[in-house]
Amino acid sequence: MSSATYYRTHHCGELRLSDAGVRVTLAGWVHRSRDLGGMTFIDLRDRHGIIQLAFNMETQALLCEKARKAGREDVIRVSGTVTERSSKNAHLATGEIEIVVTDLEFLNHSETPPFTMEDQTDGGEELRMKYRYLDLRRPFMQQKFILRAALIKAVREYLDENGFLEIETPNLIKSTPEGARDFIVPSRMQPGNFYALPQSPQILKQLLMVAGMDRYYQIVKCFRDEDFRGDRQPEFSQIDCEMSFVRQEDIWQMFEGMVKHVFRKLQQTELPDFLRLPYRDAIARFGTDKPDMRFGCEIKELNEVCTGSEFAVFNQVLTNNGLIAGLVATGCAGYSRKQIDSLTDYVKAPHRGAGGLIYIRYEADGSVKSSVDKFFSPEHLQKILEQAGAVAGDLLLIVADKTSKTRKVLGDLRLELARMNDWIDPAAWSIFWVVDMPMFEPDEETGEPIFAHHPFCSPHPDDVEFFDTDPFRVRAQSYDLVMNGNEILSGSIRIHQPALQRKIFQILGFSEQEIESRFGFMVNAFRYGAPPHGGCAFGLDRWVMLMAGGETIRDVIAFPKNNAGKDLMMEAPSPVDDAQLKMLHLDIIPTENKGSA
Amino acid sequence: MSSATYYRTHHCGELRLSDAGVRVTLAGWVHRSRDLGGMTFIDLRDRHGIIQLAFNMETQALLCEKARKAGREDVIRVSGTVTERSSKNAHLATGEIEIVVTDLEFLNHSETPPFTMEDQTDGGEELRMKYRYLDLRRPFMQQKFILRAALIKAVREYLDENGFLEIETPNLIKSTPEGARDFIVPSRMQPGNFYALPQSPQILKQLLMVAGMDRYYQIVKCFRDEDFRGDRQPEFSQIDCEMSFVRQEDIWQMFEGMVKHVFRKLQQTELPDFLRLPYRDAIARFGTDKPDMRFGCEIKELNEVCTGSEFAVFNQVLTNNGLIAGLVATGCAGYSRKQIDSLTDYVKAPHRGAGGLIYIRYEADGSVKSSVDKFFSPEHLQKILEQAGAVAGDLLLIVADKTSKTRKVLGDLRLELARMNDWIDPAAWSIFWVVDMPMFEPDEETGEPIFAHHPFCSPHPDDVEFFDTDPFRVRAQSYDLVMNGNEILSGSIRIHQPALQRKIFQILGFSEQEIESRFGFMVNAFRYGAPPHGGCAFGLDRWVMLMAGGETIRDVIAFPKNNAGKDLMMEAPSPVDDAQLKMLHLDIIPTENKGSA
Which residues, in sequence order, are bridge partners of residue A369? Predict the structure, then answer.
């Protein structure tokens, strides 16, 4: 009970049959009302629940008349007595009681809202975003924010207990190189100069380690001015952590412990220890570094068993050291021609770019039928099926291409098959580490080795010798945590030796002058006794989304932006007046094509 | 103990005599080292404390030689045995023991730092800011951040327990009118349009109340592009709170409870109930709305007793309905002419602007001497002293001017006297509410009534009738919390009725069109059932500063900016390259006088 006793003595959701006879005052929103002639009922709603109010026309005609005027979403305050219901509602926590009302006050009126306040609302996405304050009034949405707050609370509990200090880092910083584009903020006091909004507090948290803060965390907004591919937001929240005097093992134990703590608190679940999957295995077995392991259907490599045919596609791939590999779609031998065509279109989509999809049906009766019958004997096809681990009734789908493409395409196809066949148990959790990430990846255009992470990531000490001779072999001390096919954590052991850091900058192609102007303060800091350190950052929005059952991170962000970076409720961004621009010494360059930059 | 067992088994500060005989591994910084010939001692430091390491030249010559090479701030890892010291150090928590070291590893070297890592460092402000990562390494500074984290933790505990939901609001929003200048962020995707960084989440938290979130809090960065008068920062942290279905009393109880909880947790102190001081009384008694009540010396009004003299200054003030008032400086009758002259200069300083300072000494022997002896009989002066409550040995200091100026000047003078006479007990706390703030204040130039708060603040229901007839009489439902002379909380009951909100906007001079373009989404929201609500925001940095004993809020902000808005460590703000500006469709207007905007 709160100290607020004028407006309410209780919340709507907390009263029970054991409170029968208690005189209470409640306040909230009119969720529904039903006028049954003799009786009028109102469902009163607040964040804590819904309770039925009863007004009796016979005994209190004036009051009942007043109650009949209550419209949807009006704000009211009532006093009355908790009374056992004659017809109970088992679906409602307060369903055994109602409030027999003696006083009713209208605190505010509501126009008819543009959509219903129900779980399954009739409002479309755009409308719900424009009226986000009403969208959030739906209990369905409120539950997500209650869960978000509970998750954050559990995280803080764990980190506080483990000696992490919450330290705030600034939002107006110097532009840092994290791969994405910075949002910049013009300085009025230093005309022509700009702050940048942080893409992450990466450098600052490393400096906090140099400052001897030992263990740091912060739940912090990060900003990236990217084009909005997929489910991204220009600002998002990170659980940002860093530790001194640690190796990878220490970090894995610490944050595996944190995730387990959160599941214990929020779901009363004891998670099993997390698998540590080497990056190379993840790619080979699932075609991605963030596999969803709630189902099997791993990639089966078939190069060896596919030799010796007249099938030119295979032979060419074999000659070029490519990869022939397949997925066993369990129980899918009966797929129609149309279904298989649709999967073929799926893998041939421009952003996947497979040349085609080969199928081998392993019919229930043991016979075999395939799209390459004319190149392979039935015995050979049997061997391929056997190698892939297929049994009668299965469908084997094969891609043959450059190794990386075969894997990528089959990784996507694997997810598509799971969706089509409902292979994923929505109540299951698949959480594991991906470790031994590569230090370099091939540049998409040139194939040259480029850094796979930010320039502060430490190479595996055993692999430094391959830096020049075999860069793709160099492992970084870098790791991800994957949850149901989403990367929810990324981290690394950082470089703490000034000489190695400088070497990495040089490999990245920075001149001495650039190193000084962009990272000077960091390189300087490392000259004064930087401790060994490492850490990670969790994508908070995505983690909450997975646990709250949302479909996009917009569902768990109070006031999100749309794909064009617009807040439809506030109508931001918006023009500013000329005086303000003048004060900032800025001019807008007119654009011919105003819609696109 | 952490799971990190390669680098360390314990922290430096946690070992005690009871651990004697235990084999430990420690890591940290070389705080000091002493080479005594036969023995070398190193004080090893981490965030948790300092411990002495002992190296014996006789028994382990090689190791001792190595230890002698350790310079200040080198990072080392040692293993050894906890051993009772022969000469104990009572000033150190670990002072009864030392580690007899058997292994020493250098983890990193440090150049000679630019200042010492001591509480009383030899580094000036600018140097400490440039090397903030070293400044923060000083235990003296680390304690402040440990306290800051503990304060935030206690705040969250209390708010979580009281049903507040932590909800994050966006940083890229629409420009809102909170009195100060917005920082703006150019949008690349919407050329010519800008986001604003929030001066506070005021409107958004009110919309969360409209959304039925009931109780909200957030520890949030706020941004104001102001010229840096006094101890301000362009970005600062607020504990931002809002509650639905409350009146002022509910809010006062809730947040008084929170402050008491924090003091209980951090200082094991039970604070007494907070006084509620009406704004008018604060101004009349102390000349300010944020008095420091750790000492007395209240303003004594003397108009009545000062009538009937030939002193033109008084008579003129009396004729013009001004105020003659004074402060009794207890025991200061012996002030020298020079001391009184210096106080006179103080009140006559341009930004105070008093015409002069009148004194009356009440000598220890009961005689009276004043700067206005020729206008007043000794008996009259005695009467004035009596009215002011002075006793023998006191000094009465009088200002006569317009009422507001007399109060303001004496309010300042009161603080100056306290500083000069050491009247303030640094261990004392003075915490109280200032309530019944006025709705309007006179415009500094025109004297016309203008709003004293933001346009969402609700007037006192009893005073609405005076809106047009006597606006300065209208009280707002607005309140501050004052701690040792600093405003650390400000809040109000908000308007929840759309018609009243519209009226206030009109009084503020907004046209219908401006209301629509600037506040349209808020006015709209209020049409759909806004609950009665109110809240407050704490200035977190200032509160932490007061409890951590800092002199400026820069002491409790990890990476603060200087008075020119610069981060001296990162060298931000800085120029950005032309390509980036072009992408934002922006041009910089060259300035003739580059230093000032």
Answer: A361
Contact A156, B531 (CB under 8 A): no
A17-108, CATH topology level: OB fold (Dihydrolipoamide Acetyltransferase, E2P) (2.40.50)
Nearest CA in chain B to A137: B211
Distance CA B589, CA B182 (A): 20
Distance linking the first and last C-alpha atoms of chain B: 54
Residue B554 pLDDT > 90: yes
Task: Give the DSSP letter of residue B438.
Answer: B
Beta strands in A57-207 (DSSP E): 75-84, 97-108, 165-166, 184-186, 194-196
Distance CA(B478)–CA(B481), nearest Å, equals 11
- What percentage of chain A carries pLDDT values higher than 90? 82
**Bond preceding residue B573 cis, omega within 30 of 0:** yes
- Count of CB atoms within 10 A of residue B475's CB? 19
Looking at residue B245, its amino acid is F
Q: Are A196 and B571 in contact (CB under 8 A)?
A: no
Distance CA B4, CA A252 (A): 11
Contact B172 A223 (CB under 8 A): yes
The CA distance from B419 to the nearest CA of chain A, in Å, is 33
Q: Is the dihedral of CA B194, B196, B202, B204 positive or negative?
A: positive
Class of the CATH domain delimited by B146-278+432-563: alpha beta
- Per-residue confidence (pLDDT) for residue A121, from 0 to 100: 81
CB contact under 8 A, B212 and A137: yes
**How do the domains of chain B map onto residue ranges?**
17-108, 146-278+432-563, 295-420
The residues facing A23 across adjacent strands are A81
CA dihedral of B202, B205, B206, B207, whole degrees rounded to 10? 120
Helices (H), A508-594: 512-525, 540-548, 578-583
Contact A211 B132 (CB under 8 A): yes
**Angle, to 10 degrees, between the axis of helix A337-348 and the axis of helix A403-421?**
140
Strands in A36-96 per DSSP E: 39-46, 49-56, 75-84
Contact by Cβ (8 Å): A408, A288:
yes
From B247, B528, B574, residue closest to A134, measured CB to CB:
B528
Q: Do B570 and A521 touch (CB under 8 A)?
A: yes
Q: Which residues contact A91 (CB under 8 A, 6 or more apart)?
A: none
The H or E element containing residue B338 is helix B337-348
**Neighbouring C-beta atoms of residue B334, cutoff 10 Å:** 11
Determine the Cα–Cα distance for residues A298 and A287; give it in Å rounded to an integer: 9
Element housing A219 (H / E): strand A215-223
ipTM value, please give it: 0.94
User: What is the C-alpha to C-alpha distance for residues B331 and B338, in angstroms, rounded to an integer?
Assistant: 17
pTM for the model stands at: 0.95
Contact B191 A132 (CB under 8 A): no
Nearest CB to A528 within list B7, B111, B497: B111
For all residues of chain B together, what is the average pLDDT? 93
pLDDT tens by residue, B285-309: 999 999 999 999 999 999 999 999 9
Query: Beta strand pairing status for B449-451 and B440-442?
Result: antiparallel
* pLDDT tens-digit map of B82-111: 999 999 999 999 999 999 999 999 999 999
Which CATH number does B295-420 carry? 3.30.1360.30
**B244: closest CA among A28, A44, A557, A131?**
A28
CA angle A526, A530, A532 (to 5 degrees): 130
Please report the pLDDT score of residue B2 as a whole number: 44
Contacts of B253 in chain A (CB under 8 A): 3
Q: Which residues of A touch B584 (CB under 8 A)?
A: 184, 597
- CA distance to A42, A54, A76, B214, B246, per residue, from A104 (Å): 12, 11, 7, 20, 17
Between chain A and chain B, the number of residue pairs with CB atoms below 8 A apart is 398
